[in-house]
Structure formats: C-alpha cells, structure tokens
Amino acid sequence: MNFRKIALAIILTAFVFTGIVQAADTSIGVNLGTSEIEGWVDIKFNTLNTPLILGAGFLYSKDDYWLTNVRMAVKDEVFTPGLSLGLGFRGVFGEVEEKRIDYDVGALCLQFLGDYDFRKNTTRLPISISVGISGAPEILSFRDTERYIQFSGFFNFHINDNATAFAGYRKIDIKFDEPVNHDWDDDAILGGIKISF
Fold first, then answer.
1. What's the predicted TM-score (pTM) here?
2. What pLDDT is recorded for position 23?
3. Is 178 helix (H, G, I), strand (E, B) or coil?
4. Which of 9, 19, 23, 150 lies deepest, with the highest CB count within 10 Å?
5. Predicted local distance difference test score (pLDDT) of residue 13
C-alpha cells in the first residue's frame, strides 16, 4: 500500500476545497503519539445559518495500521455560552495488519461531538475540552469490518485565537469478521497543534 499517495491525495483535496470555500473557517491539525501521526483538515461554514463542518483526516501508525476518514457534522452553541454540541456522520476506510493477516476497515459511523470553551464563561481561561464518539454497528460496516467504535477526548490550550496546543486520549475498537473473526483495539495518548484561519 502506498501511504504517500493516499496522504498526498487527502492533503491536495483538502487544500483545493479550502480554496473553493472562501468564506470558511479552516482548521489544520496534527496529532503525534509514540508510534503514530495523524493529520486533519476541518472546514466550517454557515450555509443558510447552519454551522456545517466538513473534514478529512489520515492516521498512520507504525503498529501496522492506517485509517483515513471523511466527516460531516452540524455543531453549534447550545444551552449556555461555551457549550457546543453536534451530530454528524464519519466515513472510515483503512487497513489493519495483525499476526500477518490483513483486515480491511470500512464503516459509516454516526458521530457525537461536544466542546466546552472556558474562554466564553466568567473565568475567561484560555482552555477548552472536547470529546468525540463515533460508532458503526454491523449494518453500517463493510469490507472485513463488523463493528467500529472510536472515542477521543482532548484538553486544549488556546495560545491565541488562531493557534491551539492540545493533549488527549483516543481509543479505537474494531470487530472483524473476515478473514478471521477477531476483536482489535488501539489506544493512544496524543499531543499536537491546531492552526485556524
């Protein structure tokens, strides 16, 4: 598998799309773990006053797996200043190799997103927390995948309005049915940066 071609295709697509959507808020981020790297692009724009987020990302691990995703979500501030909740879809495609067996990953996940930004409450602290949960049951999983679940949580430190450093945790749990029935999971402690413009 040529990972460079896949990563290049995702990056070029994201930059072309960013250029097309001139009025968008765009975020580019990189996560680093002990044995992995993840990059992503999110584009947020308000079409008909609906805060729509489109994104794409790529995750590569030296532990013999890679995953790419595209996502779409609607997320907005609710109930109290600083609290944002959202729902959406996340398509996941990739490959996991374990014990010399290749498993193909494919899932259309339902996604829940939540953020709380302390800059918008009375404390005015330059921090926020964010969580994301994605899951696909058997009916929304394909290729060798029978079930896909991903959880992530991050603590964000906002250096300024356009730059954020963060640390967090991610867990991926996949059940495969072919070529051998198998449960696989991976968890990681991550750190990274995000730039918005």
1. 0.80
2. 46
3. coil
4. 150
5. 57
